[in-house]
Amino acid sequence: MIGYPANSILVLVEVSPSGQLRSGAAELIGAAASVGSAVALALAPTGNAERLGTELAALGAAQVLISETEEHASSVVVPAVDALAAAAAVVAPEAVLTANSIRGRDAAARFAARSGSALALDAVGISRDEEGIIAHHSVYGGAYLVDSAASTGALVITLRQGSSDLRSEAQPSNVQQLPVAASGAPEATITAYRETAAASSRPELRGADIVVSGGRGLGSGENFSLVEGLADALGGAIGASRAAVDAGYVAQTMQVGQTGVTVAPQLYIALGISGAIQHRAGMQTSKTIIAINKDPDAPIFDIADFGVVGDIFTVVPQLVAAIEAKRG
Amino acid sequence: MKIIVLMKEVPDTYGERTLDLETGLLNRSASEPVLDEITERALEVALSHREKDANTEVVLLTVGPAGTLPATLRKGLAMGADRAVHVQDPALLGADLSLTAQVIAAAAKHIGFDLVIAGNASTDGGGGALPSMLTELFGVAGLASLSTVAIDELTVSGSCNTEFDSYEASIDLPGVISVTEALPDARFPNFKGIMAAKKKPFETLDLAQLGIVIDQETARSIVISAAQRPARNAGIRIEDAGDAGDQIAEFLAQNQLIKGRSA
After folding, report:
1. Could you give phi then psi for residue A213, rounded to 5 degrees?
2. Does domain B2-205 have CATH number 3.40.50.300?
């Protein structure tokens, strides 16, 4: 029996039905390793333990637990909750960390309810003080910074994707199979499935260094090519305001704001976006904000580091040409 | 079928929302309280089902302070819900998710249900965990973050788009689902609904009536500090005089924001 250090952080990483690590594992393990010993937990189809163990050690996991299960592809969340419960029983972690993804949050919430643990959601970082692990949160669109902790026991934390750039050094591979007793909790039945991992060459909106967003000022879905052109010139991701989504220009998954994705990139460029509070709540912690809008009273200018009152249809093409020229 | 819809009162996102920096709690008096839009969409799912199956009862359930909530919740009744249950107790001030989930679970059992429908995440807390916690506490099946929903007598099915994949799935009832804003907008209350809402049953419960004694030893998530981020200031602003694009490119270059073309 291998022992686990007292400062173990149990990290649930996500794996595709075919056994491939999802993006985000490096971020979770990096954050965990910054405050303790990262113990990675993955569910995978049979025959993937050694390979995943090596991959997770390379990302900084000091120890790796793999629950091999044929239910992995056909289940939604129950096997992950059962595996978390089994892993927590042997590791006795100081904290449990998952991504604040749809599946990660579901598993974390159910594990917290099952184990009676305190739950800290959508953290943007973790640290420790003399009393234990602390989760840092950015709330109300980043207007407030709040720290939370567990009154007792392990804190279960979901980490906002793309919020932490801490990465760990590779560790020697140390993988073990984790036996998991099925809880028998009622589970959903998957009737149809498809991978949607973007075939796009553009970065994902969450966690992108550069985001170019378009708003109602674009006027149509076709005109969104203006946003795409600038995003591609800068190597950035594409976002949109709620107004642009509601007008049907782009898919809801691209919405930045209170009810969409929250981003905090190095550079955020807002094209034809007025900057309603709902939008600002999703991007106002960006490091540098540039706004182009023809309305000089648009509230987006109140938070822009560089604002241009002008027509996006003339300014953006000139900007793209100038970027290409500067890059040579 | 008996459907419980979880409703939440939140500060209107069109106004400034503030935290009390002493307690880390929402400053409720500083902003207009409204029903969270996503919970209205959850209610719309329930009301749409009742139109197809008249033998459906739609019960609103909320937890929150006495203050403005009863008035806020009336909107849900005016939209068409049959009755409302409001859990309030001074001991719930500052309740964390675990305690809130425990209270909602107890209240839902008190009401009885075939299906619980919630929004996937509120606009203020934004946790998105409560429906999953309830699923676990009830020991029933659940589906989180559905972007389509079909309800029949014995099952609920729907589709979910995650960050990596999308799937269609179904659960046997009883169960818990949460819905995203991909679902249709909620209906507006009409005049008839507003008048009828005044006469609909409105039950108020406290912790004693639900048989809940708060266990001080239980693990809780606690706020240990809260601070306001300094407000952002406006920087340079220019009117386009024909060279704004070049000026932005210059600004980007000075700030090392133009990266080399990657291979």
Report:
1. -120, 150
2. no
> By three-state DSSP, how is residue A26 classified?
helix
Amino acid at A48: N
The distance of B201 to chain A (nearest Cα, Å) reads: 31
- Pairing status of strand B2-6 against strand B57-63: parallel
CB-based contact, B127 to chain A, within 8 Å: yes
Full set of structural domains in chain A with CATH: 8-177 (3.40.50.620), 210-327 (3.40.50.1220)
> Which of residues 181 through 200 in chain B touch A, CB cutoff 8 A?
181-182
**Termini Cα distance of chain B:** 59
Residue of B19, B36, B134, B136 for testing the chain A interface, max A β-carbons within 10 Å: B136
Residue ranges per structural domain of chain B: 2-205
Say yes or no to pLDDT of A201 above 80: no
For residue range B81-101, list pLDDT tens digits in order: 999 999 999 999 989 999 999
* Interface probe with A: pick from B232, B239, B261, most Cβ of A within 10 Å: B232
List all residues of chain B from 60 to 89 with a beta carbon under 8 Å from chain A. Answer: none
Whether B19 and chain A come into contact, CB under 8 Å, resolves to yes
C-alpha to C-alpha distances, A174 to A51, A84, A170, nearest whole angstrom:
11, 18, 11
Are residues B237 and A319, on separate chains, in Cβ contact within 8 Å?
no
**What is the Cβ-side half-sphere exposure of residue A164, based on CA atoms within 13 angstroms?**
30
Residue pLDDT, tens place only, A247-265: 999 988 899 987 788 898 9
Over the stretch B177-227, which tens digit does the pLDDT of each residue have? 999 988 888 999 999 999 999 999 999 999 999 999 998 888 999 999 999
Query: How far is Cα B263 from Cα B258, in angstroms, rounded to an integer?
Result: 15
How far apart, in Å, do the first and last CA atoms of chain A sit?
A: 59
Rounded CA gap, A325 and B12, in Å? 45
Residue A2 dihedral angles phi and psi, to the nearest 5°: -90, 135
Q: Is the pLDDT of residue A85 over 90?
A: yes
> A142: which DSSP letter?
T
Question: Given an 8 Å threshold on Cβ–Cβ distance, is B165 in contact with A193?
Answer: yes
A215-255 per-position pLDDT tens digit:
999 999 999 999 999 999 999 999 999 999 999 999 888 99
pLDDT at B69: 83
| Structure confidence at residue B262 (pLDDT) | 44
Residue A1 has pLDDT above 70, yes or no: no
Residues of B in contact with A76 (CB under 8 A): 143, 167, 169
Report yes or no: B258 at the A interface, CB cutoff 8 Å.
Answer: yes
Contact list in A for residue B238 (CB cut-off 8 A) is 307-309
Kind of pairing between the strands at A144-150 and A210-214: unpaired
Q: Nearest C-alpha of chain A: how many angstroms from B208?
A: 21
From A108, A187, A318, residue closest to B141, measured CB to CB: A187
